[in-house]
Specification:
Blueprint: H1 13-22, H2 27-43, H3 48-58, H4 63-66, H5 71-83, H6 86-93, H7 101-111, H8 121-132, H9 151-165, H10 169-181
Helix pairs in contact: 1-10, 2-3, 3-7, 5-6, 6-7, 8-10
C-alpha cells in the first residue's frame, strides 16, 4: 500500500479552474451535457438510447446489463426518479438493471448538472487526499476503504465546497477527477 505525503496544498478557485481545464471532454460527454440532458429535462424521463449513452460514458462495462431493461421500464423508472425528492432519486434509478450509485449519479448529473454531481472513486479519493494535505478545511463524508460514501452526504459536501470556492459542481468534479487521474501531484 502506498502512502501519500502529508503537506499543504492550496485548494481554491485557481486549483479547480486549472485542473478542470486539463480534463479532456469527449464528444460523447459534450453531447450528453448539451443535448441529451436538456432533452431529458424537457421530457421528464430517459429513453433506452439515452440510458445506453450515459452508461457507455460512465461505465462501458455495464452496457449489456443496461440492455436488459425494457424501454417501458426505462421510461417509467426514470420518470418516477426524476420527479422524486432528491433524497431518493439515485435510489429509485437503482431499480434499473445495471444502475448502481455511480451510474445513477451520472444520470442525475446529465439531467440536472447544476444540482447533481457524479459519485465515483477518483473524485472521492481526491477529496480525501486534499483533506489530508490540509487543502480542504471541511472533512469529506466518511466511508469505508473500497466503498463510496452515501450520495446525499457527498452531494451536500460538494455543493458546500463549490459554493465556498466559487465554482460549479461540474468544474469541481472534472478538477477532482483529473487531479486524481494525474496522480494527485502537489
Amino acid at each position: 500500500m502506498s502512502s501519500i505525503r502529508v503537506g499543504r496544498i492550496k485548494f481554491d478557485r485557481a486549483f479547480v479552474s486549472g485542473w478542470s481545464q486539463r480534463y479532456a471532454n469527449t464528444a460523447n460527454e459534450q453531447e450528453l451535457l448539451t443535448m441529451v440532458g436538456p432533452a431529458v429535462a424537457l421530457r421528464g424521463y430517459y429513453t433506452m438510447n439515452e440510458l445506453a449513452k450515459v452508461g457507455e460514458w460512465k461505465w462501458p462495462r455495464i452496457s449489456g446489463r443496461l440492455t436488459q431493461n425494457s424501454a417501458h421500464d426505462v421510461e417509467d423508472i426514470t420518470r418516477m426518479a426524476l420527479a422524486a425528492t432528491e433524497r431518493i432519486q439515485h435510489r429509485a434509478l437503482g431499480l434499473l438493471r445495471g444502475v448502481g450509485d455511480q451510474v445513477a449519479t451520472a444520470l442525475l448529473t446529465v439531467w440536472a448538472p447544476d444540482r447533481h454531481t457524479i459519485l465515483d472513486f477518483p473524485a472521492v479519493d481526491a477529496l480525501d487526499a486534499l483533506h489530508r494535505l490540509k487543502g480542504l478545511p471541511e472533512t469529506p463524508p466518511q466511508h469505508e476503504a473500497g466503498h463510496l460514501p452515501e450520495y446525499l452526504a457527498y452531494l451536500e459536501f460538494c455543493r458546500g465546497v463549490s459554493r465556498r470556492v466559487g465554482v460549479g459542481l461540474g468544474d469541481l468534479d472534472r478538477a477532482l477527477w483529473q487531479w486524481s487521474k494525474e496522480g494527485m501531484p502537489y
